[in-house]
Amino acid sequence: MAQNYQHYLRLVKILERLRRESDLELAPKLIDRLLDAQAKGEITAEQALELSERVQHWRERLEEYIFSQEHQMRKLLRQMEAEDRRRTK
Fold it and tell me: Distance between CA 31 and CA 25 in Å, rounded?
Protein backbone atom coordinates (compact mmCIF):
# COMPACT_ATOMS: atom_id res chain seq x y z
CA MET A 1 0.00 0.00 0.00
CA ALA A 2 2.95 2.34 0.65
CA GLN A 3 4.01 1.99 -2.97
CA ASN A 4 0.53 3.00 -4.15
CA TYR A 5 0.59 6.00 -1.83
CA GLN A 6 3.95 7.08 -3.27
CA HIS A 7 2.51 6.86 -6.78
CA TYR A 8 -0.43 9.12 -5.93
CA LEU A 9 1.81 11.45 -3.94
CA ARG A 10 3.98 11.88 -7.05
CA LEU A 11 0.88 12.75 -9.09
CA VAL A 12 -0.11 15.38 -6.53
CA LYS A 13 3.40 16.87 -6.52
CA ILE A 14 3.35 17.12 -10.32
CA LEU A 15 -0.03 18.83 -10.17
CA GLU A 16 1.27 21.31 -7.59
CA ARG A 17 3.87 22.53 -10.12
CA LEU A 18 1.30 23.39 -12.79
CA ARG A 19 0.24 27.03 -13.19
CA ARG A 20 -2.06 27.41 -16.22
CA GLU A 21 -5.76 28.12 -16.01
CA SER A 22 -6.51 25.00 -18.04
CA ASP A 23 -4.70 22.93 -15.39
CA LEU A 24 -7.58 23.58 -12.99
CA GLU A 25 -9.52 20.87 -14.83
CA LEU A 26 -7.10 18.27 -13.53
CA ALA A 27 -7.95 18.74 -9.85
CA PRO A 28 -11.39 17.06 -9.86
CA LYS A 29 -10.04 14.24 -12.02
CA LEU A 30 -7.19 13.56 -9.63
CA ILE A 31 -9.51 13.67 -6.63
CA ASP A 32 -11.74 11.12 -8.37
CA ARG A 33 -8.70 8.89 -8.93
CA LEU A 34 -7.77 9.20 -5.26
CA LEU A 35 -11.28 8.21 -4.19
CA ASP A 36 -11.23 5.26 -6.61
CA ALA A 37 -7.87 4.18 -5.19
CA GLN A 38 -9.30 4.35 -1.69
CA ALA A 39 -12.35 2.31 -2.72
CA LYS A 40 -10.07 -0.32 -4.26
CA GLY A 41 -7.98 -0.47 -1.09
CA GLU A 42 -4.87 0.93 -2.79
CA ILE A 43 -4.59 3.77 -0.26
CA THR A 44 -6.14 4.35 3.15
CA ALA A 45 -8.93 6.81 3.87
CA GLU A 46 -6.45 9.03 5.74
CA GLN A 47 -4.07 9.06 2.77
CA ALA A 48 -6.89 9.86 0.35
CA LEU A 49 -8.01 12.71 2.60
CA GLU A 50 -4.48 14.09 2.93
CA LEU A 51 -3.84 14.02 -0.81
CA SER A 52 -7.31 15.38 -1.66
CA GLU A 53 -6.73 18.30 0.71
CA ARG A 54 -3.41 19.07 -1.01
CA VAL A 55 -5.11 19.03 -4.40
CA GLN A 56 -7.89 21.30 -3.12
CA HIS A 57 -5.36 23.69 -1.57
CA TRP A 58 -3.42 23.84 -4.86
CA ARG A 59 -6.62 24.58 -6.76
CA GLU A 60 -7.60 27.38 -4.38
CA ARG A 61 -4.15 29.02 -4.61
CA LEU A 62 -4.12 28.79 -8.41
CA GLU A 63 -7.63 30.21 -8.67
CA GLU A 64 -6.65 33.12 -6.42
CA TYR A 65 -3.66 33.83 -8.64
CA ILE A 66 -5.52 33.47 -11.92
CA PHE A 67 -8.32 35.77 -10.87
CA SER A 68 -6.04 38.30 -9.21
CA GLN A 69 -5.70 41.76 -10.71
CA GLU A 70 -1.95 41.28 -11.20
CA HIS A 71 -2.45 38.22 -13.36
CA GLN A 72 -5.23 39.87 -15.35
CA MET A 73 -3.04 42.92 -15.99
CA ARG A 74 -0.11 40.75 -17.16
CA LYS A 75 -2.44 38.86 -19.47
CA LEU A 76 -3.77 42.10 -20.91
CA LEU A 77 -0.26 43.49 -21.41
CA ARG A 78 0.83 40.33 -23.24
CA GLN A 79 -2.18 40.63 -25.54
CA MET A 80 -1.42 44.28 -26.24
CA GLU A 81 2.24 43.52 -26.95
CA ALA A 82 1.27 40.71 -29.31
CA GLU A 83 -1.07 43.05 -31.18
CA ASP A 84 1.67 45.68 -31.44
CA ARG A 85 4.09 43.11 -32.86
CA ARG A 86 1.53 42.02 -35.46
CA ARG A 87 0.95 45.62 -36.53
CA THR A 88 4.65 46.38 -36.93
CA LYS A 89 5.31 43.34 -39.13
Answer: 11
Q: Express each pLDDT in 30-56 by its tens digit.
A: 999 999 999 999 999 999 999 999 999
Domain that holds residue 6: 2-88
Considering its fold, how many domains does the chain have in total? Answer: 1
Write 23-31 long-range contacts (CB < 8 A, 24+). Answer: 23/62, 24/59, 24/62, 24/63, 24/66, 27/55, 27/56, 27/58, 27/59, 30/55, 31/55, 31/56
